[in-house]
Amino acid sequence: MTDGLRPSSLRKRTAILAAAEQVFLRDGYLGANMDELTALSGVSKQTVYAHFGSKEALFVELVESMTRGAGDGVHTDELPDPTSSADLEVALIDYAVRQLTAVMEPRILRLRRLVIGEESRFPDLARVLWENGPARAMNALAGHISRLTERGWLVTADPHASATFLNWLVMGEPVNRAMLLGDQAVPERAVIEAHCAEAVRIFLAAFGPVERSGQRIAPPAGEARGAIEGWASAGRDQ
């Protein structure tokens, strides 16, 4: 979207988005004043509309850029190849900590609350956040799990379903608590690390290789996928 922009235009676009983040997250969509936003960005109102077309388009672009930016530091690299089960556990915990920390940034939590509040007015916003946030995270994690399964470090018939389980083990309680109780409910780093370690321990108990005796048999892919799709269907029907 920014390919081909001159450096001066890119700087203006970045300044507009920074001002939009400040104003929209503080005042919401309806309360956001475009004159104030323009003044904060240091450009003319004509320049704002030349870049984004409308207040609504600027709002959508803000949601997409913030959500995408939060994930860029998490989903860029492949997990390192483990040489032991301990290495695997450490790599998964590190990944989980980075993912949860990114989502628990107060500015990202405020964005999520804003999108939920505006869902009836802008239903596409929820899709933009979903695709650039949770869906992107689970797709990236599924890729890691698939590779680890192929190399014998995990046992799973459906990497995407397994990724979904791990994602919600990591995200479920902390994110819901902070979303409802506010920034003061964001846990300290040590608490995040302990929570992620326990989430990974539970995940590996289900999907880690058996090293002592016996053989782990992965559940049928359709069975795992059916559980995930059942949750999604229940959510749509409510």
Structural summary, described in words:
By secondary structure, the protein is an all-alpha fold. The protein has two domains: 1-53, Arc Repressor Mutant, subunit A (Orthogonal Bundle); 62-237, Orthogonal Bundle (Tetracycline Repressor, domain 2). It is 74% helix and 0% strand. It starts with 6 loop residues before the first helix and ends with a helix. Mean pLDDT is 85; it is low at 234-238.
- As for the number of domains, it is 2
Uncertain runs with pLDDT below 50, 5 residues or more? 234-238
Task: Give the SSE string.
Answer: HHHHHHHHHHH
Q: What characterizes the major β-sheet? A: none
Gross morphology is elongated
Counted beta strands: 0
| Helix coverage percent | over 70%
* Overall average residue pLDDT: 85
Our count of helices gives: 11
Strand content: under 5%
Draw up the topology in text.
Blueprint: H1 7-31, H2 34-41, H3 45-52, H4 55-72, H5 85-103, H6 106-117, H7 123-132, H8 134-150, H9 159-181, H10 189-207, H11 221-237
Attribute tags:
2 domains, 11 helices, 238 residues, mainly alpha, disordered C terminus, 0% strand, Arc Repressor Mutant, subunit A, Tetracycline Repressor, domain 2
